[in-house]
Amino acid sequence: FPSHDTGRNTGWVGPNHVGELNNNAVLTEEQVKEIKANRKYGMGKIFAEKFGVGVVQIRRIWQGKAWKSI
C-alpha cells in the first residue's frame, strides 16, 4: 500500500488525485470547463472527437458523474 506522506506520484488514485492529478486523466480542467459551458444538442460527438474521449464520457461530465470537482 503506497505511503500517503511521500508527496511523490505513486500511481495510487486516492482522494487527493482528482481531475488532472489523476494519472488516468485524458482531459484538462480547461477542457472540462469548455465542455460544461457548451451543453448543446450535437456537441457531445464534437467534443469527443476534439478531445479524444468517448461520447459517454462527455455525457458523464454533463450529468455531473465525472469531473465533479469542476
Characterise the protein shown here.
The structure is a single chain. The chain is mainly alpha-helical. 39% of the residues lie in helices and 0% in strands. The chain contains three helices and no strands. Helix 2 (43-51) packs across helix 3. The chain is globular, with a radius of gyration of 14 Å. It starts with 28 loop residues before the first helix and ends in a 7-residue tail after the last helix. The relative contact order is 0.15. The model has no long low-confidence stretch (mean pLDDT 82).
Question: Summarize this, please?
Answer:
The protein is mainly alpha-helical and 70 residues long. The chain has helices at 29-37, 43-51, 55-63.
What descriptive keywords fit this protein?
70 residues, mainly alpha, 0% strand, globular
Total of helices: 3
Helical residues, percent: 25-40%
The quaternary organization reads as single chain
Number of strands: 0
Q: Give start-end ranges of low-pLDDT stretches.
A: none
Structural class: mainly alpha
Distance between the termini: 29 Å
Largest sheet: none
User: How much β-strand is present in the residues?
Assistant: under 5%
